[in-house]
Amino acid sequence: MTIPLSRPLPLATPTSAPFWEGLRRHEIWIQYSPSSGAYVFYPRVLAPGTLADDLEWRQISGAGTVVSFAVAQRPVAPQFADAVPHLLGVVQWREGPRLATEFVGIDADELRVGMPVTPVFTDIPGDEPDAGVTLLHYTAG
């Protein structure tokens, strides 16, 4: 999948950097809280619920299930005019947390709540070495 460079891209923060660095290696790393016994996503400094300072990064498979989706027939922003219909949705990882994402390689008619999906890593080159970003999309499977 080719993404136009005019599209807005995420920026890593000190807290989220391990997630983005993992995606660059085509791996998915999210936080785990021993105090709550649960995986955590989005990246944060303290564990939700316990406010413990015990978050550690663990690799997950990224396999999941479609929880919700929308088929945008109009661009969500001018930079996405070439992407309609735009398949947006929420995937629940086997490990528990949910991720808002974009579906690729799927026809809109194929999408179903409850369908299994697998990760697709989309590398966006940068102007200098290590300046690019990798986005996490999902496809059927």
Automatic annotation (TrEMBL):
Pfam families: OB_ChsH2_C (PF01796). Residues 57-121 form the ChsH2 C-terminal OB-fold domain. InterPro entries: ChsH2_C, NA-bd_OB-fold, Thioester_dehydratase-like. Coiled coil: none annotated. SUPFAM superfamilies: Nucleic acid-binding proteins. This is ChsH2 C-terminal OB-fold domain-containing protein. It comes from Mycolicibacterium fluoranthenivorans.
